[in-house]
Design goal:
The chain is of the alpha/beta class. Helix content is about 30%, strand content about 25%. The radius of gyration is 18 Å and the shape is globular.
């Protein structure tokens, strides 16, 4: 069984290249595959391998005080979903290119727990009686596989398109509690921060994204699967892949 992980953490890094080289070496030593992205704003990881290898990698990483509180989301598959291991230094761990959406420069935007969102969707409003709008910050390819029931989706091909695509909807969202969400939380964290700084003070971010929601409360209120950028294609509410195979038998 392959253990698949997704994790990110915003933290100031002055040693991006050295850290990238070290993480690559550690991942190689544990025969992991996937992607390691490092920037001055933090790290973004998608790694898969054996349970022993995954645990060894993250135990060593979390021994560094900068990453001790990083949340790791887990799922499982028969297949190794990544063809190889890549490590890169980037200007942002997820490109947004908005000065007012940079987590190191501002306090974190308010978040909401999956269980609370589940309850709000079930009752049809938040705890103050306001309607709830789920705002999908992912692109068209992703939400074609599934999204929250009735979510506001935007015709974007990449994350940097979001501000312009959201503009026509801002007035209609003024009386709602807006919950921004994405796959694992990294995009909705930047999006919610930008929206807060741009005058939308009724916006929350879904803690842990869709994968965190599936992990904590299941799929209630969500239609379809969650797209992932690897060979599994998409995960259902039980975090089971759309595409999977037993590679030992396939060989």
């Amino acid at each position: 069984m392959i253990v698949n992980t997704a994790a990110y953490h915003f933290v100031p890094l002055t040693d991006a290249q050295a850290l990238t080289d070290m993480l690559l070496e550690r991942a190689q030593a544990q025969a992991l595959r996937g992607t390691i992205l490092v920037a001055e704003e933090g790290i973004n990881l998608f790694l898969a391998g054996s349970r022993e290898g995954i645990d060894a990698f993250y135990d060593a990483l979390k021994a560094d005080a900068r990453f001790a509180d990083m949340r790791v989301k887990y799922s499982y598959s028969q297949m190794q979903p990544f063809a190889r291991l890549k490590a890169k230094v980037k200007s942002e761990i997820i490109s947004f290119r908005r000065d007012d959406g940079q987590p190191l420069d501002y306090p974190r935007a308010p978040s909401v727990a999956p269980a609370t969102v589940q309850r709000w969707l079930r009752q049809g409003h938040d705890d103050d009686g306001k309607r709830v709008v789920m705002l999908d910050t992912r692109n068209e390819q992703e939400f074609a596989h599934g999204t929250f029931t009735g979510a506001l989706t935007l015709p974007i091909g990449k994350f940097t398109d979001l501000p312009q695509a959201l503009e026509p909807h801002r007035d209609a969202l003024a009386d709602a509690t807006v919950v921004s969400f994405c796959t694992g939380g990294i995009r909705c964290e930047k999006a919610a921060l930008w929206m807060q700084n741009d005058g939308m003070h009724n916006v929350l971010q879904l803690e842990g994204g869709i994968l965190g929601y599936f992990e904590e409360v299941g799929g209630e209120g969500y239609d379809g699967r969650c797209f992932v950028f690897d060979e599994r294609v998409a995960l259902d509410a039980e975090l089971q892949p759309l595409v999977d195979r037993d590679e030992s038998q396939a060989a």
